[in-house]
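DM from R.C. (forwarded with permission)

"hey, sorry to bug you on a friday — could you get me a structure for this? deadline for the figure draft is monday and I only need the backbone to look sensible"
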Amino acid sequence: MYCQSCGEDVTFEKFCSKCGTATSMSTQPPPPGYAPPQPQYGYTGAQPSGKKVSAGICGILLGAFGVHKFILGYTNAGIIMLVLCLITCGVVPSIIGLVEGIIYLTKSDQEFDATYVYGRKEWF
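My reply, with the result:
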């Protein structure tokens, strides 16, 4: 079962742990003083970073060279991609770049920023 407000999994819970909405298992409002958890990784809903589209397209087209990693500020991961490119003639990193580029482009701006910009998740 999922929360009707935010989509969080609320199976066997009376209140959504993400937004505090009462589920069908509860007929009461949230307890007094309940505050939903704050957004992860410091993302406050401000302007998107604008790196999603450029990182996604570069991941798809130039993924073998790790350009998308450098765009996101992951220098070590970018160097690893370059070394893999030399060792495997670009086969392995181009597949990684293609998959990561598609993942980047399918996420919402907020989810992308929370995961890859603020959360600093370097791989997949």
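R.C.: lifesaver. The chain has five helices and no strands.
me: no worries. The two ends are 27 Å apart (CA to CA).
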